[in-house]
Amino acid sequence: MTLSEYFSQNRYKPKWFIGDRVSGKWNGIPFVGSVLNDTEVNPEVGPVVHISVDLPISYKGKVYTLITTKPDKLNKR
Questions:
Q1: Structural domains in the chain plus CATH codes
Q2: What residues pair up with 8 in beta bridges, in sequence order?
Q3: Which member of 16, 62, 68, 77 has the greatest number of CB atoms within 10 A?
Q4: Range 5-17 burial, b when 16+ CB lie within 10 A, else e
């Protein structure tokens, strides 16, 4: 078995790809942005999507331009 065959059979397949436009809610705050990465680091946490938001989000005294959320919480724009 080659490495490409192993990874195609046994690893997470992304739902979102770089540059996909998405919207959703992060900690109850609506956002719109572009997907940077959709990956699974370990099976305990599961898959996560990193997003560059169009407008900065202020949450608990901090300003966020990059956020991380679950892929099933996103909507395609």
A1: 14-76 (2.30.30.190)
A2: none
A3: 16
A4: eeeeeeeeebebe
Give the pLDDT confidence of 47-56 residue by residue, as tens digits.
999 999 999 9
Nearest to 75 by CA among 19, 25, 22, 17: 22
State pLDDT tens for residues 1-40.
Answer: 899 999 889 889 999 999 999 999 999 999 999 999 999 9
d(CA 22, CA 3): 32
Q: Round to whole Å and give the CA distance between 36 and 7.
A: 21
